[in-house]
Amino acid sequence: MRKMKKKSFCAVFMAVVLLSGCGSEIDNPVETSTPKEVLLKNFSNTGCKPAEVRTRAEENGDADAIELTATKNGGLYVEHRNATFNCAARSFDAKITETEERITVTEYDMTDYGGVMANCVCPYDLAYEIGPFEEGKAYSITIRLKVSELEKYAAEHPEIIPATEDWEMSIDFVYASDLKLTFRK
Question: What is d(CA 176, CA 75) in angstroms, rounded to the nearest whole number?
């Protein structure tokens, strides 16, 4: 019986030592701060706009214009006006990447052309929301238009499609709830 009490006492003592060791981590947790991840949502496009819209936009300096407007939920509504893509483009998307210094949004055409594109280009308006952002904080954003497939096709058919290429625009701003900025290429 005495042996059993001794074993029980040892088992309880070991459990207390082990649990108290674990408890010290719980009592003194290491504080970590994770920045809010910037998300992209609600992507949309207007579809192919008439060619005369592109001509007017180029004449007015409004080709590839980027407009940023603050939203009520601490985000930005981004509108890329008159982005040039193949006339047959039907499916678009954008992806967002983030480093400590910069947020990059890459817009691209996801259409599967099966090796054949339409013999024209036209302007599209792309729109989406990104965020959240902190009031009064400075940000750097790069909007990148990826048209690699169109660029290859244009190089092969310069008589049909005007030269077009990937491009990007870098924008620095301080977020404010009443922000509304327009940038032109």
Answer: 10
What are the Cα distances from residue 55, in Å, to 102, 121, 163, 174? 33, 12, 15, 33
Residue 146 tokens read as 């990826």
Place of tokens 């940000």: 139
Under a CB-based contact definition with an 8 Å cutoff, are residues 69 and 77 in contact?
A: yes
Q: What is the DSSP letter of 38?
A: P
d(CA 183, CA 163): 22
* pTM score of the predicted model: 0.70
Angle at alpha carbon of residue 62, lines to 60 and 66, rounded to 5°: 160
Helices of type H across the chain: 2-27, 51-59, 148-156
Q: Are 154 and 161 in contact (CB under 8 A)?
A: yes
pLDDT in tens, 87-130: 888 888 899 999 888 999 999 888 777 767 777 778 889 999 99
- Cα(135)–Cα(132) distance, rounded to whole angstroms? 10
Cis preceding-peptide flag for 35 (omega within 30 of 0): no
Question: What digits encode the pLDDT tens for the residues 31-78?
Answer: 333 346 788 899 999 988 887 776 776 777 667 889 999 999 999 999
**169 or 30: which leads in pLDDT:** 169
Cβ(122)–Cβ(130) below 8 Å: no
* Phi–psi pair at 112, nearest 5 degrees: -90, 105
